[in-house]
Amino acid sequence: KRIERELENALYANSPLLKETSLHYLHAGGKRIRPVFVLLSSKFGEEDNSLIRDVAVSLELIHMASLIHDDVVDNADIRRGRPTVKAKWDNRIAMYTGDYILAKSLELISKLDSDEAHQVLSKTMVELSIGEIEQIRDKFNFDQPLTNYFRRIKRKTALLIASCCQLGAIAAGASESVHRKLFQFGYYVGMAFQIKDDLLDLTSDEEKLGKPAGSDLLQGNITLPVLLALRDPKVKKEIVKVQEITDQNFMEKIISLIKETDALEKTIEISKKYVDKALQILEELPENETKTLLKSMIYYVVQRQY
């Protein structure tokens, strides 16, 4: 609750329009798993200070900014069951809102006096930007290799979650060996998290997702279960017909075809491998009551239904 309040405080703007657009997105909700990972990872350090909360807020703001920009690129009208900023206002206002939120995040994290922390964050943001460009490059590319997908989700999702874990520990004065292990832990959790997200896009429903099922494919974002389903020539013949103007009835047919293959089962298997790696790293970390909470976070990531 405190982080939620501080997120709202951070987004206060003198411009009524910027304040409205920023808070519109914030009030749409979200899982807030990034600040949770910051807070839990900080328990491996010895300090409990306001910097930790600043880092938690900052990293959630970076995530928010990237999603607002994403909605412009993907021409998405709905997120979390509410109109996106670009849908309610326009693309230009959405881009400036994303830029403003990103600037606020950097303002907050500048209080952290650690060269290594700032290097970790800057590298993560560079990779995040490259991931966004790669997603645009591979739109409706049905012949891309699996390595493209894994590299893309590493950049777009996993590295930011890894940074949350590492920066939370750095802000709390944890040792280098511990905060580097937490980065690895966060990376594996982040990969599993995004794979689960991509699976839910095909297996959950609009009420839970806050957007129509199959939205990723409709936007040209070819995810792991789709790439695995494309190995079946008959299914591929239908999937490659999908375009941004494809109607929902045809999308439902495509989702049914994907479910008839073993793509979903294989996707779950791959996700579990990342979960196992995360659990292994967790075992290597110092004994701490937080380890139980981090373990429950891992299970939440893979068992969630939205």
Order of helices and strands: HHHHEEHHHHHHHHHHHH
Strand content: under 5%
Q: Helical amount among residues, as a percent range?
A: over 70%
Strands in their spatial order, largest beta sheet = 1-2
Distance between the termini: 21 Å
Secondary-structure-derived class:
mainly alpha
The dominant shape is globular
The average pLDDT score comes to 90
Largest sheet, described in full?
2 strands, antiparallel
Structure, described:
The protein has a two-stranded antiparallel sheet. It is 74% helix and 1% strand. The chain has helices at residues 2-10, 16-26, 33-42, 50-74, 85-88, 91-109, 115-137, 146-171, 176-203, 206-209, 215-218, 224-229, 233-239, 248-260, 263-284, 290-303, and strands spanning 78-79, 82-83. Strand 1 (78-79) and strand 2 (82-83) form a beta hairpin. It is globular. The chain starts with a helix and ends with a helix. It is mostly helical. The longest helix is centred in the middle third of the chain and has 28 residues, at 176-203. Helix 7 (115-137) runs antiparallel to helix 8, helix 8 (146-171) packs across helix 9 (176-203) and helix 9 packs parallel to helix 16 (290-303).
